[in-house]
Specification:
Helices cover 28% and strands 32% of the residues. It has eight helices and 13 strands.
Length: 267
């Protein structure tokens, strides 16, 4: 007889704390190991928030180049394991062969989406040249960041997660996802946009974090022409965004921000 599958952990847990006034309690974001596997092989193990895992699996496959289209991910099984969660992918034969050929093992620390990449060539992979022209009006930059803040339900509870959102001129913020890892949040957003059939070339990704190179790589792979972030970029992120034709807007603080690349994208 098959044993029942244990429930997945909730994204938020209540924990006891000690304050100067005595015992207390607060809500804390859950963090678990999430393994993406296919054909008996593990491609990556990420530390992530156990929410929107379907979006995460599809988005990770898209941003890492495992699949080019959502329909190439034939199936997904989410399994609770003793020490984490397994996302078991079912791929078409061509994608499975590529998966095996370029498999990597990562211990996905929160600060680095590239941990465990086995070569410099894999870390600094070639990116498509972005051809889509998108301009944001000056007032849209703070509006997009403010809208993302309003969409962060998990952050309001825990003050401990990042978010990624998608802003479309004339429509506003159409999707947002949260995670303890900033690159995981972007992967979840990518999956959500793909499921909804959104044209990623017609909007901007908005991030609550600093901009490191893997976030630029993921956004460029999706075809996103504009990246907006509340914190600063790294020099490699700037060079990478410039090389692929992405407008990079960062250090957004209210009505002030800085445009680092492709300044014509910010009116």
């Amino acid at each position: 007889m098959d044993l029942p599958t244990p429930p997945l952990p909730t994204p938020v847990q209540a924990v006891a704390t000690e304050t100067p006034d005595g015992p207390g309690a607060r809500l804390v974001a859950e963090e678990v190991a999430v393994a993406l596997t296919c054909g008996g092989a593990t491609h990556a193990v990420m530390m992530a928030t156990p929410a929107a895992l379907e979006d995460f699996a599809l988005g990770f496959c898209l941003t890492e180049g495992i699949v080019a289209r959502p329909e190439e991910l034939l199936g997904l099984t989410i399994l609770q394991r003793p020490r984490g969660i397994e996302l078991r992918l079912e791929l078409e034969e061509a994608q499975l062969a590529a998966f095996r050929a370029r498999r990597r093992r990562m211990a996905g620390a929160l600060g680095c989406g590239l941990c465990g990449v086995e070569s410099l060539e894999a870390a600094l992979r070639p990116l498509p040249r972005l051809r889509t022209a998108l301009r944001l009006a000056p007032e849209e930059v703070p509006q997009a960041v403010a809208a993302l803040g309003e969409a962060q339900a998990l952050h309001r509870l825990t003050h401990g997660v990042h978010a990624a959102g998608f802003w479309v001129p004339g429509r506003g913020l159409v999707a947002a996802r949260e995670d303890v890892g900033r690159h995981n949040a972007l992967d979840k957003l990518a999956g959500a946009l793909a499921r909804a059939g959104e044209d990623r070339g017609r909007g901007a990704v908005v991030l609550t974090s600093r901009v490191s190179v893997e976030l630029v790589q993921k956004a460029a792979t999706l075809g996103v022409p504009v990246l907006v972030a509340v914190s600063a970029p790294t020099t490699l992120a700037i060079r990478t965004a410039e090389a692929c034709g992405m407008t990079l807007i960062a250090c957004v603080r209210g009505a002030r921000w800085e445009v680092f690349t492709q300044t014509e994208g910010a009116a």
